[in-house]
Amino acid sequence: MERRNKNWYKKALIDKMGVLVEQGEITIGSVKTAYLSAGSGDVVVCLHGAGAGAVTWYPSIGALAKSFRVLAPDIVGYGESDKPNAPYDRPYFSKWLSDFLTGMDISRAHVVGLSQGGAIALQFAIDYPTKVDKLVLVDAAGLGAKVSFWPFVGMVWMNSFPSTVANRFNSPYILHKPENRDPNHSLYSIAVLKDRGGKNAFKQGRGAAVSEIPEESLRQIKNETLIIWGKDDRLFSAKCGERAANIMPYAKCCLIENAGHLPHMDQPEAFNKILIDFLEKE
Fold first, then answer.
1. Which domain CATH number covers 155?
2. What angle do the packed helices 183-194 and 149-160 form, to 10 degrees?
3. Domain of 167?
């Protein structure tokens, strides 16, 4: 039987994207950031959630790359990027993203953030508003969601003792149907957590990145914003997205039926169409 490892899982997910994908890395200061890049045109930066890495976007990069230059970094603390001892709060992630884009010679981009990546995208739009064109928040953290007991247990278990058993327990809380996720993504997530420093972001961040963002800060965001939410999200209630759309001055919310916390995996065709239509609209 072929021995499979983290690199094998990552390659399998990249192959599913159906486009030419460049794997690169850049070091800013003392932090190395790995990234995926595909397509050409206006830049769309895709920020994954609290786990795995850029390959979390495997259902969407191919579709986006037909119209845009897609840049999906492994956020510091995840994937193949460095995992330093750090606070891993929103200001830390926001500065990392600013440094990364500066290093890539990108002055302005559309920013799409999933879950914790959504909280980072929000903070980035607050801190560096001129660097953000359109903002897309996908089942975003930071909008006041209260995680119930069993999903919380699943997150702690997966991030403390990563295994296929922990993943099976956790999957129903993040997907409408767990079988909608490519198993290579689950296996890659486990492998990354087992890497040296792989648990740093969870243990040292202590949830700071996903803490609630004050309403007055949300009202400061003047970028045109689309909030996409899986209607059946069992981790973060869709009501959080609807509420945020009423607070943010230039935001609207779109719910996707039969989709959980990872709507781009549960309903990739519907998700990609909604996302691309918004980004392409003048």
1. 3.40.50.1820
2. 60
3. 6-280
CA distance 131 to 98: 8
**Count of the separate structural domains present in the chain:** 1
User: How many Å apart are CA 225 and CA 153, to the nearest integer?
Assistant: 32
Torsion of CA 85, 89, 94, 95, to 10 degrees: -40
How far apart are alpha carbons 27 and 30 in whole angstroms?
7
Per-residue model confidence as pLDDT tens digits over 91-144: 999 999 999 999 999 999 999 999 999 999 999 999 999 999 999 999 999 999
d(CA 282, CA 264): 23
Q: Which of 76, 74, 80, 79 is nearest to 37 (CA)?
A: 74
pTM of the model: 0.97
Say if 1 falls within a structural domain: no
DSSP 200-244: HHHHHHTTGGGSPPPHHHHHT--S-EEEEEETT-SSS-HHHHHHH
Locus of tokens 């397509």: 39
Q: In what order do the strands lie in the sheet with 31-38?
A: 22-28, 31-38, 69-73, 43-47, 109-114, 132-138, 225-230, 251-256
